[in-house]
Recover the amino acids of this structure.
């Protein structure tokens, strides 16, 4: 672990407000929640002024509830970063928690050649209520963004921990530690001091920064459960235009071995539908072939998702389907590590 030193030069941080609980405060007269004016965020969160940074602000014209997040939203967000990339040293994105891990994963694939931190944060309670976690999440995210220890990744900061974005998932809606990353250690932990796990932070890219655009949403998510009807799976996999599907299996990638189940999956593979196997477990990895109940999947052409989260698997598949024309290339890149999303 390494500790950040005092920043010597004044840095520029762009705070991007998209919506979510973090952007609400309570009206002192009516008690109703209303949107925060982020043009005056340093007046509302006075601690930001002590960072001695130059802050820029960008608010979406209409704040979006994170339940309404979709690839079009990711495109707009990526273009804001792309437009301002050279002008700022780091970015703090304020976002609703429900789909934060999807956005973090999507941005990680879209933004290639990062040399600057892009930190997504939010809160479980609005900015203006008692015991809110919003202030400390905003302040610490900004402090990490201007640290002399650079984290050139798309990250999620929440409740004292900084996670790689495409390794994160929301696991609770009722506690302040809403996010976890069971297959990859935190990149930093904020206690009395902020301690960085420098061994696991990706190095600044030597490539020129580039924002890729485009997602193919012709994908499906199928969660295996005891008693699932093969007709349900078959109907899903025969959706017109479907290009790929994530299969959430048991444990280390296991699924039923009934001939009808395997026939349906093989039929989809034969029709050119890419099937990616990820575990329903938050921790651990798919190991196709370790047990007989996963060997059959490997044999018919299902691709192992290794230890990717479902959020990373879905966004990666949609991203690659839009960026690549060759199925061979797509399958090869699904197995490979693009932005630290899986363990090779």
């Amino acid at each position: 672990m390494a500790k950040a030193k005092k920043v010597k030069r004044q840095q520029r941080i762009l705070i991007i407000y998209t919506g979510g609980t973090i952007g609400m405060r309570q009206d002192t007269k009516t008690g109703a929640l209303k949107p925060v004016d982020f043009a005056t965020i340093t007046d509302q969160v006075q601690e930001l002024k002590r960072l001695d940074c130059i802050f820029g602000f960008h608010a979406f014209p209409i704040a979006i509830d994170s339940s309404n997040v979709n690839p079009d939203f990711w495109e707009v967000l990526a273009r804001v970063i792309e437009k301002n990339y050279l002008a700022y040293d780091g970015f703090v994105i304020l976002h609703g928690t429900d789909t934060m891990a999807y956005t973090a994963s999507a941005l990680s694939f879209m933004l290639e050649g990062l040399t600057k931190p892009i930190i997504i944060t939010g809160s479980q309670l609005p900015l203006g209520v008692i015991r809110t976690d919003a202030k400390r999440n905003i302040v610490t995210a900004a402090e990490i963004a201007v640290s002399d220890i650079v984290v050139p990744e798309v990250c999620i900061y929440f409740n004292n921990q900084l996670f790689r974005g495409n390794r994160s998932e929301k696991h609770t809606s009722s506690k302040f530690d809403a996010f976890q990353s069971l297959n990859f250690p935190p990149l930093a932990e904020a206690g009395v001091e902020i301690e960085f796990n420098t061994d696991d932070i990706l190095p600044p890219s030597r490539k020129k920064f580039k924002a890729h655009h485009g997602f193919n949403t012709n994908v499906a998510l199928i969660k295996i459960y005891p008693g699932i009807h093969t007709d349900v799976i078959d109907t899903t996999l025969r959706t017109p235009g479907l290009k790929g599907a994530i299969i959430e299996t048991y444990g280390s990638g296991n699924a039923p071995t009934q001939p009808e189940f395997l026939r349906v999956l093989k039929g989809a593979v034969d029709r050119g539908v890419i099937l990616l196997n990820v575990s329903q477990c938050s921790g651990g990895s798919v190991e196709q072939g370790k047990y007989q109940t996963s060997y059959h999947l490997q044999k018919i052409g299902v691709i192992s998702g290794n230890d990717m989260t479902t959020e990373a698997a879905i966004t990666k598949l949609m991203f690659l389907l839009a960026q690549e024309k060759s199925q061979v290339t797509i399958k090869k890149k699904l197995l490979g590590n693009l932005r630290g999303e899986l363990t090779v």
Q: What stands out?
A: The first helix runs from residue 41 to 44. The longest strand covers residues 12-17.
